[in-house]
Amino acid sequence: MKLAIHGGAPVRTSPFPAYEVIGEEEKAAVARVLDTGVLSRYLGCWHDDFYGGPEVRAFEEEWAAYFGVKHAIAVNSCTSGLYAAVGAIGTEPGEEIIVPPYTMAATATAPLVYGAVPVFADIEPDCFCIDPAAVEAAITPRTRAIMAVDLFGQPYDADAVNAVARKHGLRVIEDAAQAPGATHGKRHAGGLADIGVYSLNYHKHIHTGEGGVVATDDDALAEKVRLIRNHAEAVVEDKGVTDLVNMVGFNYRLTEPQAAIGRCQLRKLGPLLERRQANCAFLAERLAAIPAIVPPLVRQGCGHAFYVHACLFREDVAGVSRDRFMDAVRAELAPTALRETEGVNIGCGYVKPLYLQPLFQKRIAFGSRGYPFAKPWYEGEARYDKGICPVVERLHERDLFTHELMRPGMTRDDLADVAEAFAKVWEHRSELA
Fold this sequence. Notes:
alpha/beta, 14 strands
């Protein structure tokens, strides 16, 4: 049987089913809000409507109850939520925040908004989250906080990272964008740190198109996030706020229709998550027959949310490179409906390690004089040269591959086609040498 990459018949030519989670419930909820004529109810001054309208408040209450946190604050994106969280913890210009290099860029750029400098710490070779030992090694007298990401749906090592933070008097911000519903012991991801942030972007587990939620049990942090979300500087005097640190506000507000959609989506999260976990278990069992592929490790005592299926590839066992092998697998399969222009959703690595991006290589962010990386704003020596995080570089360049062909909507027959494509390429891998 000839490989498709060499002109043979592919395993599958019909598109995989789209990941669609918006249904009649969301349509009815939006229509209900439209009928009220109130699409947003925020006022950027001290007034009862400073906290938003009835849908936003109901959504926040339901989110807090579901995830077992005291406060949930709706925002218009996870990026906005991360920015607000960095401001709420009192970040000062010239300070440092330790971040992982393997994450969406906003995780690492959030400190820059407040004049702080990101310091990168390497990730774990098996769970892919920030490495507690690397975090401790990166701490300096300028460190304000640690940004921990629940990458690919895997909760970060909260016990170890939080212990490091307590030892050094640091705050922990949890980026749970990819992990709603994941658990660490009896706690939900997003509620493992001082403050956590979720994403409701269109390609996440559940979504409102764009949107996010900030979660915390800390009353003071929650109120600061609410102020930053809605023009803090215009409110503090009438509200009686005396701590003016980082009380320059923004418009990070979620609309009433989005909140109504979010309430519907939240009720769907449990079944959607169960389907992801079942699909990944099926594929892990099938792919276990290929000795060069190592399925995702689930941290002990945790529940994985499987934003994607992130696996390791052992080139030394396969006798062929990861990139060549995955090119051949992609050739055997078809794109996903509604995402046809993206090709087959199998990727080698994830994002380029963030410190290798031009922003950090050139140390140019705001203005042309190197703010906030250069003196007189910053007295530290943050490094961004290649080689500072060898684990993430090896994973990105050689060992890690991810795919999205395990989302809800995929049938067992669909999943079987995915597994068959991998098995076919494995059987004929000598053709790729």
